[in-house]
């Protein structure tokens, strides 16, 4: 028996998990998503992820046809059905089936809700011990006034273009700057630096996603009385830092040992 995928209240074998080609999530990236992890059958920060999912949907005027409680129950049921202990969970909500025009009002019926539970390895295990080498790429982060990075939308082309530039140069990850040249985040992760024993990370107003793992690191730092700052960062400050690391649900926490050829 293969993995089952939840689509609109029903479960399908992976090979038969399908949506309409007229779904606006496919046609226009019109939808939102969350990436979540479970460890030893416990879902990490599930409430926070669900809250962010509903906030993203609210921002784009997308009505999720489940309550928060129903969404949580559906995620847990899907994990149990697939008998996964340590898993990566992808929750996707699309605008639903419509016509070939942009108008979301022409989408028929409810939004589509998809829950996929599987495993993920974003980076090779050895990089968690030896550290990543990353570069800065030309593609800048979306302007908050255009597509606000706080919305985890299905349209990730901004990040994908930056990832392509990194891969073309032989790197697995890259720093994206904002329109003013300040450090925003990486293609799929938040970035932290350490200087003189204190943590620094770009603030949300710089075009960074409010990462759940990012917020967890900041909360742990506060508990341990480690200085923490949401601070505008230049590349110079990254280059001269004592440590650099990236955080994200898929990436977890991974060290960086070289940035734009500068040894950290």
Provide an overview of this structure:
- The chain has 264 residues and is an alpha+beta fold.
- It folds into two domains: 4-118, Aminotransferase class 4, branched-chain amino acid transferase, N-terminal domain (D-amino Acid Aminotransferase, Chain A, domain 1), CATH 3.30.470.10; 125-263, D-amino Acid Aminotransferase, Chain A, domain 2.
- 26% of the residues lie in helices and 29% in strands.
- The protein has seven helices and 15 strands.
- The chain has helices at residues 24-28, 46-59, 68-81, 125-130, 157-168, 212-223, 235-239, and strands at residues 4-7, 10-13, 31-39, 42-43, 87-94, 112-118, 132-136, 174-177, 183-186, 190-195, 198-201, 228-230, 243-248, 252-259, 262-263.
- Strands 7, 8, 9, 10, 11, 12, 13, 14 and 15 form a nine-stranded mixed sheet that branches. A six-stranded antiparallel sheet has the order 2-1-6-5-3-4.
- The chain starts with a strand and ends with a strand.
- The mean pLDDT is 95.
Q: Which secondary structure elements does this structure contain, and how are they paired or packed?
A:
Layout: E1 4-7, E2 10-13, H1 24-28, E3 31-39, E4 42-43, H2 46-59, H3 68-81, E5 87-94, E6 112-118, H4 125-130, E7 132-136, H5 157-168, E8 174-177, E9 183-186, E10 190-195, E11 198-201, H6 212-223, E12 228-230, H7 235-239, E13 243-248, E14 252-259, E15 262-263
Give short descriptive properties of this protein.
264 residues, alpha+beta, D-amino Acid Aminotransferase, Chain A, domain 1, D-amino Acid Aminotransferase, Chain A, domain 2, 2 domains, 9-stranded mixed beta sheet, 6-stranded antiparallel beta sheet, 7 helices, 29% strand, globular
């Amino acid at each position: 028996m293969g993995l089952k995928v939840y689509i609109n209240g029903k479960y399908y074998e992976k090979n038969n998990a399908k949506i309409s080609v007229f779904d606006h999530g496919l046609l226009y990236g019109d939808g939102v998503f969350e990436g979540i992890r479970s460890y030893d059958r416990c879902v990490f920060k599930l409430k926070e992820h669900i809250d962010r999912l509903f906030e993203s949907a609210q921002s784009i005027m997308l009505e999720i046809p489940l309550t928060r409680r129903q969404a949580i129950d559906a995620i847990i049921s899907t994990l149990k059905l697939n008998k996964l202990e340590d898993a990566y969970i992808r929750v996707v909500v699309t605008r639903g089936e419509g016509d070939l025009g942009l108008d979301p009002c022409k989408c028929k019926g409810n939004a589509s809700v998809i829950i996929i539970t599987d495993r993920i390895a974003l980076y090779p295990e050895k990089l968690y011990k030896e550290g990543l080498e990353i570069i800065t790429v030309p593609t800048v982060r979306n302007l908050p006034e255009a597509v606000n990075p706080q919305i985890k939308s299905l349209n990730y082309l901004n990040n994908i273009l930056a990832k392509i530039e990194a891969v073309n140069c032989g790197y697995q990850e890259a720093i994206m700057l904002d329109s003013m040249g300040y450090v925003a985040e990486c293609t799929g992760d938040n970035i932290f630096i350490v200087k003189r024993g204190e943590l620094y990370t770009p603030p949300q107003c710089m075009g960074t996603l409010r990462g759940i793992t990012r917020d967890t690191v900041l909360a742990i730092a506060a508990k341990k009385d480690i200085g923490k700052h949401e601070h505008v960062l230049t590349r110079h400050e990254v280059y001269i830092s004592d440590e650099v690391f990236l955080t994200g649900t898929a990436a977890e926490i991974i060290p960086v040992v070289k940035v734009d050829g500068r040894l950290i």
